[in-house]
Amino acid sequence: AWISWRTATPYWTTDRRFMWVNPEEVLLASALWMTERANPYFILQKRKGHGDGGGGLAGLLVGTLDVVLDSSARVAPYRILYQTPDSLVYWTIAHGSSRKEITENWEWLEQNLLQTLSIFENENDITTFVKGKIQGIIAEYNKSHDIREDDDTDKFKEAIAKFRKLFIMPEEEKLVNYYSCSYWKGKVPRQGWLYLSINHLCFYSYLLGKEAKLVIRWADITQLEKNATLLLPDMVCVSTRCSEHVFSVFLNINETFKLMEQLANIAMRQLLDNKGFEQDRSLPKLKKKSPKKVDLDARAKSERYRALFRLPKDEKLDGHTDCTLWTPFNKMHILGQMFVSTNYICFTSKEETVCSLIIPLREVTIVEKADSCNVLPSPLSISTKNKMTFLFANLKDRDFLVQRISDFLQQTTSKIYFEREITGSLSSSDDEVGTTMFICLLRDRQFNLNENALFTLACFQAKEFLKEQAWKNHFTEYGQGVCMYRTEKTKELVLQGIPENMRGELWLLFSGAINEMATHPGYYEDLVEKSMGKYNLATEEIERDLHRSLPEHPAFQNEMGIAALRRVLTAYAFRNPNIGYCQAMNIVTSVLLLYAKEEEAFWLLVALCERMLPDYYNTRVVGALVDQGVFEELAHVYVPQLYDCMQALSVISTISLSWFLTLFLSVMPFESAVVVVDCFFYEGIKVIFQLALSVLDANIHQLLSCKDDGEAMTILGRYLDSVTNKDSTLPPIPHLHSLLTDNRDPHPEVDIFKLVRISYEKFGSIRADVIEQMRFKQRLRVIQAIEDTTKRNVVRTIVTETPFSIDELEELYTLFKAEHLTSCYWGSTSNPMSRHDPSLPYLEQYRIDLEQFKVLFALLFPWACGTHTDDLALRVFRLLDHNADALINFREFISGLSVLCHGDLTEKLKFLYKIHILPVKKMHTPDYRMYLRLWNQETKAKLENMKDLPKLNQSQFIELCKTLYNMFSEDPNEQELYHATATVTSLLLEMGEVGKLFCSPAHKTDEDEDDEDDRIPVCRSKQERTRCKPCDVETNSCVAGPLEDIKLEDSSPKDTAMSSAMLISDDETKDDTSMSSYSVLSTGSHELDDKLQCEDIAEDTVLIRNGGPYAGAGHHGKAGLPHSASIDKDWAITFLQFLASVLTEQALVQYFEKPVEISARITNAKNVRKVGHQHMSLSDYEISLSD
């Protein structure tokens, strides 16, 4: 039968209000349920053991049974049953996870169905009507929401509801599947349910009143293994950096483990590549639909399909079916499977090496159903442009298959694909012809040879001719081009060596690059044109390495060859900026150019970097490190006697990178290494592993006697340098690797073809799927090791800049990164790609936006308090965002936290002052950046630059007062701090008013300056002198005007537009005990309605304006705020005035000097899991969060 692996449309809804279910028969309505409401036709019931009270011992046992036996583990705690009066059979028609949800359904039934049911006379008619009505509601809902019906709809919906309720997960977190299993907590197994979602692994168990919950991010998993012991024959071990978790007793452990691998792999991809957080095209949109297990199965199937047939990365498998293929070369019907995707029809035999076939739909001309017979049932004939016809038979769903192929053929773009002539990617075809011909001439160049050498060369050319003839005969028998039958004979010819002038063609064919080149005509030319004249880091690195690419080869000792190499490397860097350019790419590309045209070399490089050697050539060579780990595992299995020795010498890690990154091209003579490349393009990475193991095995005795890594490297270097290709027609080329050899006798020659055959004989059992399994295991280890290295480097970079300890910085970095990942999972206001870029320096790799910062601010910053927290977080964020890109990195985050936790009084007050000078509404205004540029020049909080801080105007001062009042709302000394704040506020109001008297546009005259002391109001009392001092400090920056007729006593409020604030002395404030918990603010501003909201400050705040106080209790204070008031533009205070005023109040001094213990806040933050606006602590649930 046709098995479709297309991504399925999810069939369930996440709308909890819609909980109607297809009617299911229930025989015992009262078992384990309690009836809460009833009428003649419907019963509303609650599950025993649910909610308050728990139902005593019976409820406790029911709760345990629900989890252990799954009697209702997938069922919500509320349900509605339908029953006719004379029947003993009940029907479940609705479920609900809360009383509110089920009540909505109950009320709908009473309002819409009860009266209708009373008119029926026959109970069977009533039952039919009710069932039909419920099914109709479900069908209508599914139709309007594009939901597909499925047998598991109801159960899966309720599993989702339970998952979200148990673990407080938002709708963005999609459940993929869930399994019954046991979780081993210590030596005691806890039977429960394992929930696998897109971003988390969760477990829940309820046994005899005790809950056990576990939540682990996939991104935190360092090891995932399936093991077996005598006690536990099947178990899955999940390891994080700080703990290990064991699960067992799975009904289908293989399916469960496979899904866990897929989800962990997705998480690792997200950590590795910033594009991993983009919407994956192979899955439904995660924020709208939920990917089911079938979606991930389809994804995995497509990945294996693409790897097996070397197809482009965006090709998706549609389905596959068993069939037979008629093979004309041996006159047999071969049993195998046909695979159909959007652009290809492929076939592989049951026995892997017998036959495989790739038919691009762009090559198909005719698809027709042939006549069936006993020998050839249900045959299907497919003809191609190159006159080949393929006959498939035993197709059970032939009609459907033909329809699918026809649909895809119609979608195939009707372009004319043609063989490209020698003209390549240059705008001038003559230049390209010259370049290609130049390289070909150098490749076949004859040097001055004597008679013996000429005879030897003739023998080589004869061997080359025989190879060419063998391949031509093969093409005649098996077909030529992409539709060729690929058999064991094809593999034999590859192992014997591909002829020099056929290498480019066959490399394109076997690598699959020919498909991408054919479907992207003109792509390379466009890239070359766009990249010309562009310069970046990648192009600089390319220029540096151009002359290091096979410098011993004549083709790259001339500018024409160098120019071709430059164009290919630069074009690829522009195609894939995530990779850009990596060392070793130049060596591989130069070899590709020797045997292929420029455009062909480019597409070969694409196949190499993006499919055949994934992640090898990024900035951290992750793929090569992963395969290094795989190679170590293989060495442990296949050469165990050598493994311990090599590990002790650290040789494997040294040799594998150079061997794998360049496919032996940098460590083996050129004419021999290209044979390795031949095999690699045909068989893939397994050839490189086989060959590496063969080299170790051939030198096992010498390596066992080595005393250090240098000696081991010399042995391996001499051996590889002695590998020769006796069939090569190329002239001998000096090899750089010979520099590693010593002055001893040269190593005996090793024939490359013999070495390759030995590798197949001894290690040919290595399978591609086993390698992929090993790669997954190593990828977890490598990427988590890279993440740990990143954390250490970030901490090492900033540890000297902050008082925090290394351990505290590591914990803070973990929280910072976790918040970044959570926002990527569940949505944010900014694009995750802009916040996570592994190619950036360590400090810039993770950045958070404002919404993420608000969460961390509430958890870690000591000033976070009450409803004012978000507003204060916004102000702090803007101050820390030095480059005004709406993102802050870890260094910026720590700089702010350090001031608030470890800064002295002056630093904290300066920080508080700065955050209120920044504009409130807009983040990218010019004055905002001006202030940032000014403050970024500060390295320390020095007294001498305090004068440089801008003054605080009246509106900003009001916001500062609001911040102070809200900051103390939960402090034990709240009343005392309010009183101190009121005193400071009053003092600063006076200073601002007095400052206006000295800041006049008129210039001082010498006479004015002489008489200045006589005109300045004299502070008579000690308290008044104390108030005036801060202002006097700044008088040198103010220009005083004529003030002869103005005295301090005359500054009381007048009935004018420029009225000033009422002055309240310290004595008056302190003597009036009724004012001890009140706040005093100036209200001479029309913005008070917006900025001084009474609910934002203390409810007992007194607003003073025009001599009259307006109590701001709740919303009633708004009535006292006149709209005609205006901002006093001349009113301002300086930081030194603010500092001096605060120093007069011991309560405030103690508050700001009080040390903050960050470790306690870190512990609390680790025990709090943010989900939307809800938090749950470790004290409430048993939660394991991997760091």
Automatic annotation (TrEMBL):
InterPro entries per the UniProt record, alphabetical: EF-hand-dom_pair, EF_hand_dom, GRAM, PH-like_dom_sf, Rab-GAP-TBC_dom, Rab-GAP_TBC_sf, TCB1D9/TCB1D9B_PH-GRAM1, TCB1D9/TCB1D9B_PH-GRAM2
A GO biological process held by the record: system process
Matches recorded under PROSITE patterns: EF_HAND_2, TBC_RABGAP
Protein name: TBC1 domain family member 9
Single GO MF annotation: calcium ion binding
Start and end residues of each Rab-GAP TBC domain: 497-684
Record SMART domains: GRAM, TBC
